[in-house]
Specification:
heterotrimer, A alpha/beta (409), B mainly alpha (303), C mainly alpha (340), B: 303 residues, mainly alpha, ABC transporter involved in vitamin B12 uptake, BtuC, 12 helices, C: 340 residues, 16 helices, 1% strand, globular
């Protein structure tokens, strides 16, 4: 009787994972575990939309042409629930049970870090669009390719900008004092590392260096210290939740600081949702619709944004854009290499030199994209305007931020 | 000099800062107090540890944002969210919770844990995972040479917490249902023998807890940001407060809540925000051990 | 033991040995199944046999995981340099170093976990009922918070385990063998313990602690010993799971109170707490159900899991074996309690 139970269980387990090869017939199935629930669900959803939009677009344009044959693209999704152990288990399942040969990355650095050892072990390529932490690229991974700029560059550009402004105002950049409130995930810690390097280069002093725990629900203790210490720059990183919490509490406590820069303000939609509270905030971004990149699939960054809004009823965030770009990079590698063999595709990926609506993609030996710079937005008049680097700027930086007492209402 | 010392010295330079830090903490503590009242009520009357507390708070926040989207003014969303969750509490009691009353407390812990992941996930499916907030557009006061800012929304939340607490005390003391609730809490069997419909009392208690959570949620949406998975923060704090204050006394619950809020913020200021979580959980264990040690001296145990 | 029992055990042993070969694609999930069985069995020592419901046993799982990781790496490299997020990828392990390190890690993990259980047990095993449950919950979460703040082991970024040197087909089998051995050893050891005076002492505490104490039973010592026993096997389970998963993260992998921490309780209750086979059956049924939810209910799996938990707790408080025993007492009673 117990044997019968056990037997039934193994049959059920077998049903769990029907093993099938995933480049068959006329479809290439990519595999992705993304966060549809849990703390990265916002960005995970945008990642999925990015992947889906690119797949839809490719299929509308006739699919992927390899060896004189047209393949449709498809994606096998799992929900990793924003959790490391599940992301790793699901990657294993995609490859081992679903027979997936090409993996797209999950959302966030920690989850990408959990998946990369698995894809590496199976020698399956992973093109990822949302793992920016440099720690991913120091492990000697051969099958990992990232289309985005690494996270150390997110806010170091703001530090450089502060140094520049200090010089213009006739102050030494070394006199600039920085305050940091960083989430304690591997992405934010790498953002912090980038800031420390930039600060060291300018000889700046870090006066507050707080690590904010996971949920990022309350930073009023940190803000109280900011008010006391009066730094010149306040830098914040904690994904969408961190941006929303910080924006709200800074406005509420009326914290005056000449420069305020954070990551993820566009995915948190602070300009749309917080109105005046978000004004003059600097936002680090991988991409903006106003950039002049173009490609044969979506046309331009602008057109991508329009198509995205038409399809999903919200503005394309950079998380969505870079996710779409990851799919394009695969398509390019398939077609350029004219092969669906994982090793050959890996080699084609390594040789990628592609112009996309998201920006140029060119991987170095460690698999990170060296072709594309970061941009800084500033929230001006309820809109995100690129203010740096100068090449892309569409508006002039407002600096210092006007104190709250001088603002209307 | 180590950072904590530097931070403490900041208080000497600007004593007003201490006011800011403690005030921020106390005002947050008021919201914890609301969640903790409800938990103490359900725990005391029904002997249920309501792990779904935090999710009910968050649900209240989402409902408030929804009502506000329909054009209701921010402050009216508080009673509306409370009313909606009163009804939901009743439904939850009739559907699930009535089965765990009178059972081992551990059963109720697990059952309400199941409900909590269910509700968190449903919120995620209905409203999406985006971070939300509700702007009451009240602004802030600046006092003590503009060093200290007090958010008016937070003060309103504190006032609401105190008013609700007082109303609850009056209700439990004077109304017929309130007396029935207290009688049931003291001895459910005797109350039943004397003609109290305890099942109805339990349903009402659970629904009242829902209403309190709904009001707390609406207030939280006005002073913090919320997202579907933020409930645990409130459940854990409510736990800690109830453990600290005991079940019997609402005034003690309020004091413990404000104290915990202030202490947590103080620790965050001096040691850095990363130690707030570790502080709360270590405090929880320490309080339990301390209380049990004290009782052990008279050969009693904490029950 | 009757011939029928021998045949049954033989068939189970055969199935255990053959499973990863029959279903090679599922070998890792089958290894996970054995870890889950171990978790459920060790939870039941306190929760079922002794009547002390713990929500924080995950603490020992995490401590074992980190202890093993530190030893595995620390024998050959500087741990702080290894976990440095900006560090280079040049710190590698030869196959000999890997296996030696793993063996040492598997030795260190149960020792560290047991010592922790002795210390924390002395601290909080004076608490009873829900207060004990809440104190353990606090300990479990605090463990994760402290690990996340501890830079030496990688803090919140986590700890990347050394890579298995063999081929990857072999890796799954290797860890399946480890996990299966652990599950079987745990079962055998607990069964042996429950059959002695120790088991009777646990049950006496469950039935009436005050009376047991009045009759001269050193209840505090028994309670601490019981927690140490379950911590021993939990520490081992943590060490194996850490290596199987590849990445140790403080709050979600090591001190994962909201997942493994609760699941171990549910599995024991689902199967029937306080029985020998209950946790095993519960773990198997729960693991398979959960995997099915994951595969077929994209995005809604946690709703289903929530419903499942409520249903288990409300309608099967006695568990599968508990119900079966009540229904068919002759068939199940003897077997369930174990004749040893």
């Amino acid at each position: 009787m117990r044997k019968a139970i056990m037997f039934g269980i193994f049959v059920a387990l077998a049903l769990v994972g029907p093993a099938e090869a995933k480049v068959e017939g006329d479809t290439i199935t990519l595999g992705a575990a993304v966060s549809l629930t849990g703390r990265y669900a916002t960005e995970g959803g945008q990642t999925r939309h990015g992947y889906d939009l690119a797949v839809k677009r490719i299929n509308e344009m006739g699919g992927v042409k390899v060896g004189g044959k047209s393949y449709k693209l498809d994606i096998r999704y799992y929900d990793d629930e924003s959790s490391n152990d599940r992301a790793a288990a699901l990657a294993e399942r995609l490859i081992n049970q679903d027979g997936i040969k090409f993996v797209l990355g999950p959302y966030s650095s920690p989850l990408t870090g959990a998946v990369a050892p698995i894809t590496e072990r199976f020698k399956i390529p992973m093109v990822e669009a949302n793992g920016a932490s440099r720690s991913l690229f120091t492990k000697g991974y051969r099958y990992l390719f990232a289309v985005l700029s690494t996270s150390d560059q997110y806010l170091s550009s703001a530090v450089d900008l502060a140094a520049e402004r200090a010089k213009e105002d006739g102050r030494a950049p070394a006199s600039v004092r920085l305050a940091l409130a960083m989430g304690d995930d591997s992405f934010s810690l790498d953002v912090r590392a980038g800031i420390l390097e930039a600060a060291k280069a300018h000889n700046m002093q870090i006066v507050i260096d707080d690590k904010v725990p996971d949920g990022f629900t309350d930073i009023s203790a940190t803000l109280a210290r900011v008010k006391a210490v009066k730094p010149d720059v306040l830098l914040i990183s904690g994904h969408a939740k961190g941006a929303a919490t910080a924006t709200r509490q800074i406005a509420e406590a009326k914290v005056d600081v000449p420069m305020l820069a954070m990551t993820h303000c566009d995915s948190a939609q602070i300009a749309e949702k917080m109105g005046a509270a978000a004004e003059y905030t600097l936002c680090a971004s991988q991409w903006a619709p106003t950039l002049t990149y173009s490609d044969k699939w979506f046309g331009s960054a602008q057109k991508y944004d329009e198509l995205f809004r038409k399809t999903y009823n919200y503005d394309a965030s950079y998380q969505a854009a870079e996710s779409s770009a990851a799919v394009l990079v695969y398509v390019d590698a398939f077609e350029r290499g004219q092969s669906l063999d994982t090793e050959k595709v890996r080699d084609s990926l390594a040789a990628t030199n592609l112009a996309t609506f998201y920006g140029p993609v060119k991987f170095d030996d460690t698999g990170k994209n060296t072709g594309k710079p970061m941009v800084l937005f500033q929230v001006l008049g309820g809109d995100y305007k690129v203010v740096a680097p100068t090449k892309w700027a569409v508006a002039k930086l407002v600096h210092p931020r006007p104190p709250w007492s001088k603002r209307g209402s | 000099m180590p950072a904590p010392m530097t931070n403490l010295l900041l208080f000497l330079e600007a004593p007003a800062l201490l006011v800011q830090v403690l005030l921020d903490g106390i005002l947050i503590g008021a919201i914890y107090a609301l969640a903790a009242y409800g938990m103490a009520l359900v725990w005391g009357v029904m002997n249920i540890v309501n792990v779904v507390q935090g999710e009910l708070v968050i649900l209240g926040g989402y409902l408030a944002i929804m009502f506000s989207g329909l054009g209701v003014s921010a402050f009216l969303t508080v009673p509306l969210a409370a009313a909606a969750l009163f009804a939901l509490g009743w439904v939850m009691y009739a559907g699930v919770v009535f089965r765990v009353t009178g059972k081992d407390m551990f059963v109720s812990l697990l059952a309400t844990f199941g409900l909590s992941i269910l509700i968190a996930q449903l919120i995620n499916q209905i409203w999406g995972a985006d971070v939300r907030s509700l702007d009451a557009e009240l602004g802030s006061w600046l006092i003590l040479d503009s060093v200290v800012t007090i958010s008016r929304a937070r003060v309103a939340a504190l006032a609401a917490a105190l008013v609700l607490g007082a109303a609850l005390v009056v209700f439990l003391r004077t109304s017929r249902l309130g007396r029935a609730i207290r009688a049931t809490a003291q001895n459910a069997r005797a109350a039943r023998a004397l003609g109290v419909d305890t099942d109805w009392v339990y349903a009402a208690t659970y629904a009242i807890n829902g209403a309190i959570c709904g009001a707390a949620g609406a207030l939280i949406a006005m002073i913090w940001v919320i997202h579907p998975f933020a409930g645990l923060v409130f459940t854990i704090r409510a736990f800690a407060i109830v453990i600290l204050a005991g079940l019997g006394n609402l005034a003690l619950v309020i004091a413990a809540a404000l104290g915990l809020g202030a202490a947590e913020n103080f620790v965050g200021f001096v040691l850095g925000a990363q130690f707030q979580g570790a502080f709360v959980f270590s405090l929880l264990v320490a309080i339990l051990v301390w209380r049990s040690r004290r009782l052990a001296r008279s050969r009693k145990v904490l029950r | 033991m009757s011939a029928r029992r021998w045949a049954l055990h033989g068939a189970l042993a055969l199935l255990t040995a053959a499973a990863p070969f029959l279903l090679p694609a599922l070998a890792v999930q089958l290894a996970m199944l054995w870890i889950m069985v171990t978790l459920a069995l060790t939870w039941d020592t306190l929760g079922g046999q002794m009547g002390y419901n713990s929500f924080g046993n995950i603490l020992f799982f995490g401590i074992g995981m980190y202890a093993s990781a530190i030893v595995q790496v620390g024998l050959f490299h500087d741990v702080a340099a290894y976990t440095d997020p900006a560090g280079s990828g040049s710190l590698t392990f030869t196959p000999r170093e890997y296996y030696l390190g793993l063996a040492a890690g598997l030795l260190a993990a149960p020792i560290a976990a047991t010592l922790a259980a002795l210390a924390f047990g002395a601290l909080i095993l004076g608490l009873r009922g829900p207060y004990f449950a809440i104190a353990t919950l606090g300990l479990g979460i605090a463990g994760g918070e402290f690990a996340a703040a501890w830079g030496y082991v990688g803090g919140a970024s986590g700890f990347l385990m050394p890579v298995f040197p063999g081929e990857f087909g072999r890796r799954a089998l290797f860890f399946y063998a480890l996990a299966a051995s652990l599950g079987i050893a745990t079962f055998a050891a607990l069964r042996w313990l429950y059959g002695r005076r120790f088991g009777l002492a646990l049950n006496a505490i469950r039935d009436d602690e005050d009376k047991a104490e009045a009759l001269g039973l050193p209840t505090v010592r028994v309670k601490i010993a019981a927690w140490a026993v379950s911590a021993f096997f939990l520490g081992l389970a943590g060490a194996i799971f850490g290596n199987l998963n590849g990445l140790i993260e403080p709050r979600e992998v090591a001190f994962s109170g909201a997942t493994f921490g609760v699941w171990m309780v549910l599995m024991a209750i689902l199967g029937g707490k306080g029985t020998m086979w209950g946790p095993v059956v519960g773990a198997v049924v729960f693991h398979v159900t959960k995997e099915l939810f994951w595969t077929y209910l994209l995005g809604w799996q946690r709703v289903a899991l929530g419903v499942l938990i409520v249903v288990i707790v409300l309608f099967f408080p006695l568990g599968i074996l508990g119900h079966a025993r009540r229904r068919w007492p002759e068939t199940f009673r003897a077997r369930v309690e174990g004749a040893a």
